[in-house]
Batch of 4 targets.
Target 1
Amino acid sequence: MKRTIFRLPGVIAALGGLVLAGCSEQASAPAAGPKEAPSVMAVDAVETAAGKTEQVVIDNFTYRPAAVTVAAGTKVTWVNHDDVPHTVTSPSKPRMLDSGTLDTDQSFSHVFTTAGTYEYFCAVHPKMTGKIIVK
Amino acid sequence: MQNRHDHKSAGVSADGIDRRGFLECMAWVGTGVAWSVRGGVLSSSAFGADVKPAEKADFTFVQISDSHIGFSKEPNKDVTATMRQAAAKINAMAERPAFLLHTGDLTHLAKPDEFDTCAQVVKEAKVGQAFFVPGEHDVFTDDAKSYLQRYGKGTQGTGWHSFDYKGVHFVGLVNVMNLKAGGLGVLGKDQLEWLKKDVAGLAASTPIVVFAHVPLWTVYEKWGWGTEDAEQALALLRRFGSVTVLNGHIHQAMQKVEGKVTFHTARSTAFPQPEPGKAESPGPVRNVAADKLRKTLGLARVDFVQKTGSLAVVDSTLE
C-alpha cells in the first residue's frame, strides 16, 4: 500500500477512503486514474489505481497460492524458487500467458485488465496448474 | 501380481521346449538386486551373484537418458562430466554396442549450445550410431524447433521414427509434445496412426523395442510420471510375443513386467530424482554426497539373444 501511495499520490488522494477499504473492489478506480497520464504510464496507473500487485511463488513444483482472486488492473508476478525451470502458460493458443522459460529465481509478470478466470499450467510439468480470478 | 505373465517371446526355442507362456528376462536394478523371471516366478539375488544370461548376446545396445546438459546446481554442477563418464563406460564394455539410444532430456533448457555439447559427448561413445527421442526439456521453449533441426533428421512428425536391426524392430516415440494442463505425457492421434501403420506388416514373432522419454506405464500419476494414451500404443503391440519398453524421465531404474511387455526406466546421467511419493516434489535430490553422486547415475545395456528372442536389460551405475 505504501508503495502505491508514493507512486501516484494524485490518484490516491482522489479515491480517498476507498483505497483503505481494500483497494481492489472499485471497478471505477482504474478509469479515474490514467486519464491525464501519458500513454506509457497508462498500464502502470491502472494497476496502481486498482490497488495492488500479487505474487505467486513457484516452489516444490507448485504454484502458491494456486488460485488467486484479484481486481482488474492487478499486476501478478510469478517467481520460480525451484532449481528446475518452470513456465506460466495458458492452456490454449493464442496463449495470453506465455512466460517462456523461468529458470531459478526468474520471474514473470502480467497485468490483468479484464474480469474473468485465467487458468494456466507449466509447459514442462503439466501437472502443475493454477488460476487467476479477476473480478 | 505384476510378476504374472503368460507368454514367451519367440515360441519354440533351440532345446525344443515350447516356452510359450514364459517370459524370460533378466535385469539388474538398483544398486544391489538382480532379478530374473522364468515361468511367472520372480526371483532376485544380490548383485554380483551368478545371474547371467544363459546365451551369448547376438548384439548389444546401450540406453542413456536425461543428460540435462545445462543443469548446474546441486547435486551435480558438471553434468557434462558425468555424461562423459557414461560415454567412457560404454567404451570400456567388452562387447561394442551396436548403437546408442538417448531417451530424452538431452538438455536442460533446449539452448543451442546445450544441444551441441550433448552431440559432442554422444560422439565420444564408440557406438555405430545414435538414436534420440526428445524429453520435455528439449522442446518446451520452441515446440521442438531446435531439437528437430539437430536431431530430427530422418524422423516423422515431431521426431518419432523406427528402424530394424538384426530382426528386432525399434520404435522411437515422442510423448512430450502438446502437453495439456493437468495431464501426463501424450503421444497423440497422428503418432498413433503412424505407429499402427509402422507395425502393421510385422510378424508377431518380431521382437519389438519401444523407446520414449516419459514412461509408457503410469509410475506415479501425481508427479506426471505416465503417458495418457500409452494404452492405445500398447494395444497396437499386444499381438507381438516380446515387447520391451525403454523410458527415462524419472531418473531412476525401474522395471515392470505386464503380460508380454517389459517396461524399464533408465537412470539419468545428470542427477537422481526421488522415488515416487518419497519427497514433496519430483525435483532433483539435492543432498547427495559428492562421493555418492555417481552411484545414483548410470546407464542401461541391453543384450539381445536371437535364438530365444529375449532381451536382457542390465542397469549399471557410473561408479
Target 2
Amino acid sequence: MSITHERRRFGLPGLKLLGITALLLLLPGSNIAQQIIDLCGCAGDPTLQPFNAGNPATYPPGTSGCSAACTSGSVTLPLPPDGVLRFSSFTVDGNFTIGFFRNTANTPVTILVSGNVLLRSTVGCCPDLHVSANDGSSGTVGFAGVGGLGGNGGFRGGDGSVLPINGFNIGGAGLGPGGGAPGTPTGGAGGGVFFGLPELVPLIGASGGGGGAGFGTANNCAGGGGGGGGGGLLIVANGTFTIQDYDVLAQGGTGGAPGNSTCSNGGGGGSGGAVRLVAARFVDVGNGRLWAQGLSAGSGSSSGTNGRIRLESLDASAQTSFSSNPPAIRITGPGPVANPVSPTVKITGVGGQATPAVPQGGYGTIDIVLPAPGVTSVDLATTGVPSGTTLLVTVKPRIGGAAIPATVPLNTCDSAGACTATTAFNLAAGAYIIEARATFQVQ
Amino acid sequence: VTITTSDPAIATTTGGASTTVVIPAGSLVAPLGLLTTGTQGAALLRFEFDGTARDLVVVVGNPPASQIPAVTAPVIGVRIDQ
C-alpha cells in the first residue's frame, strides 16, 4: 500500500493564493481492513518471537523484569543500537510497567509486531508503558540543579547555575532543536518546544527545558535543572492493538525548583515527546490513555510545550479509539513507517579533532577536549540531504550564556549525495554542547 | 470526496471549512480551489473518500516549530581549556 502525504509551503504572508489542486485517487479503498497488509514490514520474518511481560522466557536478552512467570512487575527492555524491537506479538496483561533502557545513542523506541498488541491492566487503571523524560533536579545550597535526561530519543534539560560556586548568573540552554532558553537574572528559563512534522517521520524525541539561573551571592541562590524532553515511541502492529486500563506515556520532565526563588529561578519544563501507533485496527476497551504532555517548570520559568500523538489504522478505529493529551492526529490509512531515504546529519569534527562514532554529549558527557580557546571549527557531513540545504549549527554554553547559532549551506556534495560543510565559532574557555540540524522539505 | 480544514482562518478550499466534491464516474481527477487567507500558520486539509483519508498540510509564512521537518545530528559535548 502506498500512502502519500503531500506538503506545500506558500512563502509570503498576506498573499492570497487561489490554486487548483488535483485530487488523485490512488486506492479503491473498499474493504481495506479485510486485507492482510504488512504494516510493520516484518511479517515475513520467521525469526520473530512473542513478547509476554508475564513470561520471562519471552524476554529479549538483557531484559530486567520477572524471574519466573508473574502477573505484575516492572519490566525494562534493552534497545538495540537502532532502537528497533521486533516481535510476533506483544502482550502486557496484568499489573506491569514497561520501560526501555536507553541505548548508547539514545534513539527513540520502535516496536514492530507482525501480530497483535495487547496493553491491559487487570488491577484497574492504569499502569503504563513509557518513554518519558527525567525531571531536572532542584537547586540546593551550593549545588545547581542538573538537567534531566530525555526519554528514549529525547533531549536533556539544561543545567542550572550558582553564581558564587561556578561563576555564572545564567543557566544552560536545554538540548535539542527546541531546547528552552537558559534562565537569567531578569527572566526565567524557557520550556522545551516540540519540533517535528505531524507525520512523525523521522521520529525524534522532544527538547529539554532550559536551566535556571542563580544570580545572588548566597550559596542557596541555585538555579534548577531543566526537565528532559519526552521520548519518541513508534509501535506498529499488523493485527489489532488493544488497550484497556493502561497508559502510554511520552511525558516531558518537570523543571527543578530553585534553591531560593528570590535570587534564582527554576528549570524550564521539558517538552512532551512523540507517540505514533499504527495498526490494522485499534480496540479501546476503556481507559486507554495516551499522554505526551510538556510538564511544568520550577518557580519563575516556563513549562514545556505538548508533544504529538498520532494514531493510524486501516479501518476507521483510529478516529475514535483512546483518549489523549494532547489531542491525537487520527488517520485512516497508515502512512509509511519510515522514509524510503533516511537523511543523516553528523558533526564529524570540532577544532580539528574527530568526534566519536557514537557521541555522548546528549548524556551530558564531554566528547572532545580542546587545549585553547579561540576560533573553533565545526565540521559537518550529511547523507540524503539535498545540496543547497542550509544547516543550522548551534553552540550552547553548558552554563553561562545563550545559544550561539550559525548557518552553513551544503555546497560540497558528491555524486552519491553525501555532502560536507564547515563553519567556525570564536569560543572562550568552558564547556559547550554543539548541535546541528537540517531542515528541508522531502519532495 | 469530503474536504475539511483544521483551521479555516489559515486555509480552506473554495467550498469553505468543509465541502464535498464529486469525481465523475470514470475519472481520477476533480478540480479544487485552494484559498489561503494570508494569516500566518499551518492548516491541515483532510480529504476523505470511501473510508480512506489523505492529508495536505498548507503552511503560510514561517511555519511553527511543530511543523518543521528536522534531521538532527548527535549532540557533541566539548570542553575548551584555558
Target 3
Amino acid sequence: MSVRHLTQFHGLPVFDLPGADEAGELPAADSVAWRVRFTWGGSEDFDRIWERFLGTVDTTKVTALVLGCWGEEMYEDTLGPVLRRVVDAKERFPALKAFFLADVTFEENEISWIQQTDLAPLLNAYPGLEELGARGGHREFTPVAHASLRTLRLESGGMSAAVVRGISESELPSLERLELWLGSEEYGGDTTVDDLAVLLSGVRFPALRHLGLQDSELQDGIAGAVAHAPVVPMLETLSLSMGVLTDAGGEALLAGQPLTHLKKLDLHHHFLTDAMMQRLGEALEPAGVEVDLSEQETPNEYGGDLWHYVAVAE
Amino acid sequence: VPSRTIDSSARFTVVGNPGSRRVAMFAAAVRAAGCPEPEVLAWRDVLRGEYALTAGTLLRVDSPGEDDEVDRLLRGSDRDATSGSASAWNSARVEGGATWYRRFTAALRTLAAAAAATEGCTLLGDPEETAVMFDKRRTHALLATAGIPVPPALDMRGVPAGWDDLRTRLEESGMRRVFVKPAHGSSASGVVALEFGADGRARATTSAELIRLGDGRVQLVNSLRVRRYTEQADLRALLDALAREPLHVERWLPKAAQHGRAADLRVVVTAGRATHAVLRTSRHPMTNLHLGGARGDLDLVREAAGPGWPALLETCERVAACFPGSPMVGVDVLPAVGWRSHAVGEVNAFGDLLPRLTGLPGGPAEGLDTYAAFVAAVLRTRAAARAAEGPHP
C-alpha cells in the first residue's frame, strides 16, 4: 500500500487553497479542511502561499488545516521553519481544532526522507487543538501537557523510540485515539516492545478508546504484549495492522485476554495463514467484532531468504 | 457516431511485424472502413532492404517492437545482426539504443525515399518528425521552444560521463529528484527515477536489473519488476552503464494520484485533435502497464481537473502541432498533484496501441478505437485532397 493525500480531515472535505492565478469562489472558512501546499511549476514559494492564505481566508474561522508540500526541496530541517509559521500565527487561528503536518506522498518525497519535527511547540501554541496528525520520519517529541487533544496520529516509515517515550511521558487527559506507525528499523524505527510498556499499561491516557500500534517489523511481539496489556479492556477499537504479523502473533492474540468487547480489530496487511485468519474470525466475529483481515501478504523471496515487509517503510 | 468516408479504392500498406497485435488491429480497422485488406510489409524485410512498394498505396509505419529478429537487426552488433540464431538474442537488454536509433531512422528515410519514388504512394508520417520523437532530448527542446509545459531538463552539454559526473551536475543544478532516461528508449526501458535525500543518500527506482558478469562488466536488463538501488556501488554501476549511451535527464515532477497511485495520461492526437485518452496509475513512479500499471478512471480525472481538463487536451493538440507531418502522436501528460496543471513527458510516434479504447465522448473519434480513428482521418484527408484537385474520372 502507499500513503495517500488526505481527502477528509476532522470530518471535513480537504480543500486546496487555489493558486494565485486561479479564479473561483472560496468555500466558507469553517466548511472545509484547508490544505496549503507548494505547487511545482507555480510562481510562489511556500512563504508567499502561506501569506496569501492568511490574507484571503478568514483564518479566525478555520477549524482544520493541512500543510502539504512545502517546497521543491523538502529535506534536512526544512519542515521546522514551516511549522514555526503556524506556531507564530496562533493568534490568527483561534478556532483551529485540527492540524496535519506534511500531507506528502511518494511522488513528492519519500516518507522516510521527510524529516519530521518536534510537534510540542505546536501543541503548546494551540491549547484548543483536538486532532493532530503528521507524516514522516519522527525523531523527537518533547513531552507536553495538553488538555484538549483527542486524536494523535503519527504516520512514519520509521519512528524513533524517543517519540514513543515522549508521548508516553505526556499528559493528554482527553486523548481518545492514538495511532503510531512504528516502521522499519532500516528507516529509523528503533522502538522495542518494551518501549510500548507505558502506552500498554492503560494508566497514562484515561480517555483512550482506540490504539493503533502499526506498521511494525515487531508486530508479533506487539501482539504478544497487547494480548496481556491492561489498556485493552478500555479500548473500543484496536489496530495492529500494516506490520509483520504472522501466525505467532495471531496465536498470541487468541491465547491472550478476551478481545470480544472490541468493535473492531484491524489487522490489514498481514502474513497470517488462511487457517489463522479463519480461527481469528471464528473467535471474534460471532461476538460482533469486525475483524479486518484484508491485504494478506506473502513474503518476498530473495536468494532463498524470505523477506516480510511492513506496509510503509521507505 | 461521426459520418465515415467510405472509399473502397483506398489501398493501405502497413509496415510492421506480421502477426503482431498492431498489424492485426490496423488490418481490422482498414477492413471495417470498407477498404481492401491492407498489404503487410514486414519490418525485417524493410531493414534488409528487401522490398518494393506498391503504387498508389497509403503507407502506414507501425512499431518495429516486440519482435526478437527485428530487434536484433536494429540493436545487435553487426555480428548479431547478420548471423547467429534469434534464440541467443536477449531482447530485454537495455543498451543498444543508439544503434537502434541510427538504423531505425536510416530505414525510415530509405522508406520515405522509396515511397517518393513510387507512383501515388503516400507515406503517412514524416520520418524526420518520427526521428525527433525517438530522441527525448530533441523532443524536449522542440516542445520547450514551442512554449509547451515540460519538466525542466538537465543541461547535458559536455555529456555526463557517468555516476560521479551526473551527480555533480544534478547537485549544481539543484535537481534532487529526476528521471534519467536513455534518449532513444521506449517502454520505460532503462528509465531510472533518481532521488537524493539528506546526507548524500540516493535512491534509484527502475525496472532495469543490474547484472554483473563474471569479467566485471555490468549489463542492464529490463525486467517486469520495479526495484530500488540505494548502495553506492549499485548506483554507480547502474548510472555508469546507462551513461554509455545518450541520456535525457529531467526533473521528476510529482504526479497527481488516483486511489493512492501515481497517475499520468496517454493522450492520442489524431489529425490534430485529441481523440483518445487513457489514465495510467501505478504505485511506482513509472506507470507502464507491463510494470504493474493499471488503467484508471478518466471520469474522476475530468471531475478533479475541472477547467484543467480541456486545457490539458489543448496542450496535447499543441504538441501534435509541433509534428504537423504526423497524422497521429501519443502524448504522455504528467498531471501535477491536485490535477490543476500539467507537463508533457514524452511524445510517442507509435503511441496508439490501446486496444478497446474508444474515442473521447463528443470528439471526432467517439466510438472508434485508435486505429479506426487513424484510418478515418487518413481517408478524410484523402477525400479532401481529391475534392480540391477536382473531379476524378
Target 4
Amino acid sequence: MITCRQLVECLCDYVDGELPCDRCDEVRAHLCECPSCHAHHATYVLVIRLTQLLPAAPMPPHLSARLQAALSREQRPPGEHIV
Amino acid sequence: MDEVKRPAAEGGTGPPPPPTAEEVFRDYAPRVYNLARRMLSSDADAEDVTQDVLLQVVRKLPTFRGEAAFPTWLHRITVNAALTHRRKRAARDEHLTREALDTVLEREESRHEPVRPWSVAPEEAILDRETQDLIERAIAGLPEPYRDVFVLADVEGLPNAEIGEMLGLSVAAVKSRLHRARLMLRGALAPHFEEVSA
C-alpha cells in the first residue's frame, strides 16, 4: 500500500485524471483506509472547486471610461489633433 | 484607424471572423482585466495591462488569421503583457519569503498531523462574499510562479500544455507548480474552513 506522503505526491495526477489505472487503485484503497488522507484529498478537490466558483470582478467604472477614451484616440485619423 | 475588414461569411466551417475593435473593448475587457488582476494582484497594474492588451489586440486584428481561437490568442497576449509588466515592476513585493514557502510545503507534503475535513460546501461558498474574499486573498498570497500556473489552470481552465507554451515551462514543471500551488492554497485556507473538533 502506498504511504501518505506518496499519496500527496500523486494527488495532482489523480485528481486531474492523469494517473495510471493501477496507481489509481492504490490511491483509492489508501483513501478508504486513511481518514486523514481522505480529508486531504477532499479538501484538495474543494480548493479547486471553490476557485472555479469565484465570480469575475466587475470592471471599475473609471476603467471603462479610460478604455473608451483610449479606443477613441486609437481610432482618430492620423494627423488629427485635439486643440 | 481603418475599420477592420471582416471576412465575408460564406457559410463554410472555417473559423469565425475576429471581433471588431469596438467588440474587443466591449466584450473582452472584463476577461482581460480579471486575468491580469489575478496574475498581478493589483487593481492599478491590471488596469494598465488591460488598456495595453486591448490596444495591442486592436492594432494586430488585421493580421489575426484565426489559426488559434480568438480567446486563446487574447489569453497569450494578456499573459505576455502581465509578465512584461511584472518584470518592469521588478520584485518589489514578495508575498511569501522563501522560508515561509518551504515551511508551508513541508507541512503540506509531509503532513505530520491528521487532516480535518472542512465545514464549507461549494454551494454555500458561492453565496458567501466573505469566503470569496478569503480565497482571492489566498490566491494573491501565492508566490508569482505558482500563482501564474494556478490562475491559468484552475481559474482560467487552460490545458497544461498551453500554459507551458505561454510561460516557457515543460508540462512536468507546470504540473509540479500547479500541485504545489494547490497545496499552498489548501494550507492557507485550512485554518478558516476546518471543522472544529467535538
